[in-house]
């Protein structure tokens, strides 16, 4: 999986704009210190919120947060395009061993359907069969009569890699709809009564319905007590030990204030 993961990223990074990542020292006034983060789209909105809080307390700092997926986060940190890479993977690939990985949160992966879907619980095998296209109609497992629409993230996504690593045996249905972020997964499922997808627990809202897996719901409590199994860490990646402005920002994320923001936003803080 790791080899395919990084073949994909070489394509993604073609044309990846470094200028879009670096915003500092322009215009009049004192020069600001720039910090750039790139990677996980699941963690991106949380990183943006943390960045806003940090910049409000530290007006001499400019923080830019870019998405692109965990593979982009790893490669951006390796190349220096970003001081901090964001990756939410169960296991980091070999290439990431050259980086220092700091766990700043844990995140559940919720299996989601349209709110009108009467299915409330799936076994792990049913999850596997749905995403592999073995189960093609919801009525096969007690649901309504409707052809299943499989919605998945793209190759290189940390959410997809973690989902496949945990569930095992995923050979994605050939007619699956591929989306490039947790947000677009959410919108697609919210607008299709036959859809099934997966996304970050922290991005759930009332427009989609999370399912129990093997009888366990995806919640803060079940993630903390490790009863819910679809859980991955969120890594911030740096070249060497975190230092300077980037290290200070990571320190803020790990501080009580930063961890409170993470938990209030739906993720799980580090223990």
Q: Can you lay out the helices and strands and say which pair or pack?
A:
Elements lengths: L1 H11 L20 E7 L4 H14 L3 E8 L1 H10 L4 E4 L12 E14 L7 E2 L1 H9 L16 E5 L4 H10 L9 E3 L2 H9 L4 E6 L8 E2 L1 E2 L6 H5 L6 E8 L5 H11 L1 H9 L7
Parallel strand pairs: 1-2, 1-3, 5-10, 6-7, 6-8
Antiparallel strand pairs: 3-11, 4-8, 4-9, 4-11
Poorly predicted spans: 2-27
Number of domains: 2
Quote the beta fraction.
15-25%
CATH class of the largest domain: Alpha Beta
Q: What value does the Rg take, in angstroms?
A: 19 Å
- Series of secondary-structure elements, N-terminal to C-terminal: HEHEHEEEHEHEHEEEHEHH
* Annotation, overall tally of beta strands: 11
State the end-to-end distance: 29 Å
Fourth-tier CATH superfamily name of the largest domain = Periplasmic binding protein-like II
Shape: elongated
Overall mean pLDDT: 90
DSSP helix count? 9
How much helical structure, as a percent, in the residues? 25-40%
Largest sheet geometry? 9 strands, mixed
CATH architecture of the largest domain: 3-Layer(aba) Sandwich
Structural class: alpha/beta
CATH topology category name of the largest domain: D-Maltodextrin-Binding Protein, domain 2
